């Protein structure tokens, strides 16, 4: 099962959502993201939010279209996106994609990137991706991984999320590395590129943010 979650970030940063409407994909709306889905003729299975970012008329439209609507007080401990992600992970999907989670407020952006930690902390097997028009972002724990070249996202960056990341090795990249140590704040692994159809990256300690991007 794949679960796609659309939040209310700027529409101009959204990729073409139709590209992500696989047969086994479930859509979830978050706050104004519910309205964005409905205007694209995508009916979410469930919606979450305090809905303080939609007009009364838009909320009436949402209520008429979505069968399961989870409304919350704006003063709560979790963000709307966190509530939606927690629900999604409880469904035991193989993949969760977060859209509409970048742009606009920086506090929301940083919070959404840190939400990618939740499945790691819970040892959940789902792969969780944050996706917009220019970027695909995900986290990795220590291990060895294959990575495929993408014509639409030629740059690959590795950013430490923890204080230290040890033993990072990159093969098949324009700028290879072997058993390198990088610390929080390092820009050593920014804007690399794959030179072959596939490459590998590995590391032994820490957590990495992996970013596939284009200009």
Structure description:
By secondary structure, this protein is of the alpha/beta class. It folds into 2 domains: 2-133, Thiamin pyrophosphokinase, catalytic domain (Rossmann fold, 3-Layer(aba) Sandwich); 139-213, Rossmann fold, CATH 3.40.50.10240. The chain has 5 helices and 14 strands. The chain has helices at 32-39, 56-65, 80-90, 106-115, 118-121; strands spanning 2-6, 25-30, 46-49, 69-71, 95-99, 127-131, 135-140, 143-148, 155-160, 164-171, 177-183, 192-193, 198-203, 208-213. Helix 1 links the parallel strand 2 (25-30) and strand 3 (46-49). The longest helix is centred in the middle third of the chain and has 11 residues, at 80-90. The model has no long low-confidence stretch (mean pLDDT 92).
- The CATH architecture of the largest domain: 3-Layer(aba) Sandwich
Helicity range: 10-25%
Number of strands: 14
Order of helices and strands: EEHEHEHEHHEEEEEEEEE
**What proportion strand?**
25-35%
Strand order within the widest sheet?
4-3-2-1-5-6-7-14-9-12
Residue runs with pLDDT of under 50 for 5 or more positions: none
| Count of helical stretches | 5
């Amino acid at each position: 099962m794949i679960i796609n979650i659309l939040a209310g970030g700027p529409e101009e940063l959204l990729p073409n959502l139709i590209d992500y409407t696989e047969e086994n994909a479930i859509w979830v709306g978050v706050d104004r993201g519910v309205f964005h889905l409905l205007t694209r003729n995508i009916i979410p299975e469930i919606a979450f939010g305090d809905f303080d970012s939609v007009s009364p008329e838009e909320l009436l439209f949402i209520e008429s279209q979505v069968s399961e609507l989870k409304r919350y007080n704006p003063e709560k401990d979790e963000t709307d996106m966190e509530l939606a992600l927690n629900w999604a992970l409880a469904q035991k999907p193989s993949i969760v994609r977060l859209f509409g989670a970048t742009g606009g407020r920086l506090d929301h952006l940083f919070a959404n990137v840190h939400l990618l930690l939740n499945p790691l902390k819970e040892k959940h097997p789902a792969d969780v991706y944050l996706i917009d028009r220019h970027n695909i972002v995900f986290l990795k724990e220590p291990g060895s991984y294959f990575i495929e070249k993408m014509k639409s996202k030629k740059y690959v960056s590795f950013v430490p999320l923890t204080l230290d990341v040890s033993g990072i090795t990159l093969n098949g990249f324009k700028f290879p590395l072997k058993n390198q140590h990088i610390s929080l704040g390092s820009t050593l692994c920014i804007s690399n590129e794959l030179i072959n159809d596939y490459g590998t990256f590995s590391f032994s300690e820490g957590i990495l943010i992996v970013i596939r991007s284009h200009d």
